[in-house]
């Protein structure tokens, strides 16, 4: 499995200006997304906005996104980001005082706070210490009498775990538990199939593997699993928005589709831009991107081993995200050096995070490793 990485790289000019190892922070803008954003600006600038065309374009992108995650368009709501998707999900689940939600300690706070905030309803969130391997058997050992839901990430941002969400989904179905998954750090690099995951809700933003700037997310809702009710309401939330735009008490039936979780106007340029990103990802294939990143990860791990630098997080392909690696180099000490070397990466809890994308190359990995080696040598000689 392979694709023309050099051709893909030409679509992301920023990655030629530096050693960009920060795709897990945000995606550089690509030509296809830029073109869609520019087309939106031009139509707005020239014609003061063909809104009906933009809205039909939005529905086309909803269809593309649904196909991308193996959902139906009716199961997809657009949101502002992951946090909004997780908050909508947490508040829409029929959880009551005394119910318990299981989460992993140290998982992304934008998911965790959505559930911690349910404490005001008396719903308790219990954090389980995060082991290297998380699957259905792990959660099964921790289920309590009051456990009603599990919420977790597919891929961890801070150490690159890739969790077996499908087996957790099976456990949840067997035990009648709600299951909420944050796929933000995996989508676009790890194939996401919401049916295989078997989740009640899956949420994500789009500014990493989905190649958009910040400000757009989505929520998948399994309508068959639960009649989840929205906390917010606007005209478009309704099954039949009033044509005369007058709100009435007797017209409050929410849409039967995931549109019930949408309110107000949309981030239309971003949604239309997402159409360009999904076309690019579909043309390459997420499985190919995953394999490409895994192979680069093998090279990175071998290089770190050679230099005696520890890898934080899982090493085996089965348990590690293809594209997120944390090298045990103290961030405060190393970041200014990497900045001098024009290497872009992120500080992490236990080191520096090297995160890869569809445009990453062996040369990027080697430049990073050469820079680490040079500094280690210089400090050994000093
Ligand atoms: C697992 C995970 N969830 C959520 C987010 C971000 O949340 P939001 O899209 O709300 O900014 C990130 C990273 O930024 C992440 O890694």
TrEMBL record:
Which stretch is the leader sequence? none
User: What name does this protein carry?
Assistant: Aminotransferase, class V
Domain Aminotransferase class V as annotated: residue spans: 53-368
- Keyword Transferase in annotation: yes
Organism expressing this protein natively: Paracoccus denitrificans (strain Pd 1222)
Recorded GO molecular functions are: transaminase activity
Q: Which UniProt keywords apply?
A: Aminotransferase, Pyridoxal phosphate, Transferase
Q: Where on the tree of life does the source sit, at the highest rank?
A: Bacteria
Does this entry carry the keyword Repeat? no
């Amino acid at each position: 499995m392979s694709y023309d990485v050099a051709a893909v790289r030409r679509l992301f000019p920023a990655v030629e200006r530096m050693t960009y190892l920060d795709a897990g922070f945000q995606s550089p803008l690509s030509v296809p997304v830029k073109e869609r954003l520019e087309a939106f600006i031009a139509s707005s600038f020239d014609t003061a906005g063909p809104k009906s065309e933009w809205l039909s374009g939005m529905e086309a992108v909803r269809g593309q996104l649904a196909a991308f995650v193996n959902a139906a368009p009716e199961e997809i709501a657009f949101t502002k980001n992951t946090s909004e998707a997780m908050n909508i999900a947490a508040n829409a689940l029929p959880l009551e005082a005394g119910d318990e939600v299981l989460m992993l300690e140290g998982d992304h706070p934008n998911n965790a706070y959505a559930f911690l905030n349910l404490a005001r309803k008396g719903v308790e969130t219990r954090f389980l210490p995060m082991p290297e391997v998380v699957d259905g058997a792990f959660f099964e050992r921790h289920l309590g009498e009051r456990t009603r839901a599990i919420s977790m990430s597919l891929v961890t941002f801070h150490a690159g775990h890739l969790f077996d969400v499908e087996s957790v989904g099976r456990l949840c179905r067997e035990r009648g538990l709600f299951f909420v998954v944050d796929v933000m750090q995996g989508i676009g690099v790890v194939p996401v199939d919401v049916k295989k995951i078997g989740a009640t809700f899956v949420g994500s933003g789009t500014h990493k593997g989905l190649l958009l700037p910040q400000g757009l997310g989505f929520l998948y809702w399994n309508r068959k699993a639960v009649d989840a009710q929205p906390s917010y309401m606007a005209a478009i939330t309704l099954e039949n928005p009033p044509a005369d735009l007058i709100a009435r008490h007797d017209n409050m039936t929410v849409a039967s589709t995931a549109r019930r979780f949408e309110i107000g106007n949309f981030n239309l340029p971003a949604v239309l831009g997402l159409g360009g990103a999904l076309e690019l990802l579909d043309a390459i294939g997420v499985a190919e991107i995953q394999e490409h990143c895994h192979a680069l990860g093998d090279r990175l791990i071998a290089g770190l081993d050679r230099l005696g630098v520890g890898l934080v997080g899982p090493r085996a392909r089965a348990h590690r995200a293809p594209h997120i690696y944390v090298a045990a180099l103290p961030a405060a000490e190393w970041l200014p050096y990497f900045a001098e070397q024009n290497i872009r990466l992120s500080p992490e809890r236990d080191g520096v995070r090297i995160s890869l994308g569809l445009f990453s190359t062996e040369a990027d990995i080697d430049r990073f490793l050469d820079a680490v080696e040079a500094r280690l040598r210089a400090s050994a000689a000093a």
